[in-house]
Amino acid sequence: MSVPADAPILTSSAMRDAEAACAASGTSLSELMDRAGAAVADIAWRMAAGAPVLILCGPGNNGGDGYVAARLLRERGANVRVAALAPPTTDLAKAARAKWAGAVEPIDETLAPAPVAVDALFGVGLTRPLAAELAGRLRALAVRRVIAVDVPSGVDADGEHDWAPPLPAHVTVALGALKRAHVLLPAAQHCGRVLLAGIGIVCDATIRTLPRPPAPLPGVTSHKFSRGMMLVRAGPMPGAAALAAAAGLRAGAGYAVLSGADTAPLSAIIAEDGDHYPARLGDKRVGAVVIGPGYPAGMALDRDVASAIDSARPLVLDAAAIDAALPRLRGGGLTAILTPHEGEFVRAFPGAEGGKIDRALAAAAETGSVVIYKGADTVIAAPDGRVAAAWPGSPWLATAGTGDVLAGACGAMLSRGGDPFDAAVQAAAWHIARAAHIGPGLVADDLVGE
């Protein structure tokens, strides 16, 4: 499964607005449909490799895209059939159907399957799950490969409802922009590989997919402090903080201090007892403080978090440290990155509603902080409304300690100064790329090894 890097993500309503704006600027909706159908036809031609193709058309504009694709495939000499749920109901779809010179079969029990099926039934227009009878018919039609137009039929394009599609796609051709369903579970797992077809719609979206992992090189005048000095506060389980400190150096920090630990995992990390913690917080060279990994809730954590907040240093807050900091974060004025997983997020923000992107945005606005809402479909949200969706991540990250590594990487990126949202995005990209490189058998220590 994959999605394009740094690609725009729109809701269904925002997509309609973008199409209308495009039409108002001189590109007709008919031209957009022709471009969409051509993109689908090109993918189907390559995937079919001469095998028969069955295009399933709905009554709306998604079906119109299917009729265009069928016509273009036939012009190329493909063995293509068309089946429809009902006659077209929109002017665009009617015009596209009129240009299809072949037969249109009904989608019923008599419809024969094909090796490649193109799902152009509903797209982003679906507002409810498919009826069980129709879903059963569709399941019998795909033999080898399914190509979905925009989103698989039966999927909520905005990713808020868990509607399992009867035809999970092997490839989804996203038209103009990605939709939230392409990057949020549970829908994303049904979309297969997502290909973005640029059909000429301009999308100035604040919600995008994760960019490619950065590879910044130190400048010729860089030194260890200009590359970023980070302070990691260890708790009763210092191994987690040690992972965070080592990750900080591997992710590019120039200097790492592990406070409250007797030993460090790397000789380059400064390990010192907890009595030095207040003095370290006063060191103006410290660019970021990481606290929370391996540090359970309690008075000691509350005290150390309060000291970190009072120091006015940029913060990376993980696990129980998020709860400890919330009363002060809600007042605003702090630079912080929060890294909750699902359970921690629900505990910290029990009133958040909507899909994962909406909940992450609400938490970021409430705290004035960047929120990395972790999971297989990680979402990174900033208080100003920017979002990066990190789907797909790496399944090998589903093991203990990898969240501590991510916190350390955030500390490294944040310690250099600059925008905390950019720091969080870079850290997530580094984390996923590192895991993908290591692959099967990954343990958290591997992420900070050679």
Please describe what this structure looks like.
Helix 4 links the parallel strand 3 (80-84) and strand 4. Helix 3 (61-76) runs parallel beside helix 4. The chain has a ten-stranded mixed beta sheet with strand order 10-19-18-17-16-15-14-11-12-13, sandwiched between helices. The protein has a seven-stranded parallel beta sheet with strand order 4-3-2-5-6-7-9, covered by helices on one side. It is elongated, with a radius of gyration of 25 Å. It has two domains: 9-208, Rossmann fold; 229-447, Ribokinase (UDP-N-acetylmuramoyl-L-alanine:D-glutamate ligase), CATH 3.40.1190.20. By secondary structure, it is an alpha/beta fold. Helices cover 36% and strands 18% of the residues. It has helices at residues 12-24, 29-48, 61-76, 91-98, 132-139, 238-250, 277-281, 299-310, 320-329, 342-348, 356-367, 402-415, 420-438, 444-447, and strands at 9-10, 53-57, 80-84, 105-106, 114-120, 142-149, 171-175, 178-179, 193-197, 207-209, 229-233, 255-259, 270-272, 286-291, 315-317, 336-338, 370-373, 378-381, 387-390.
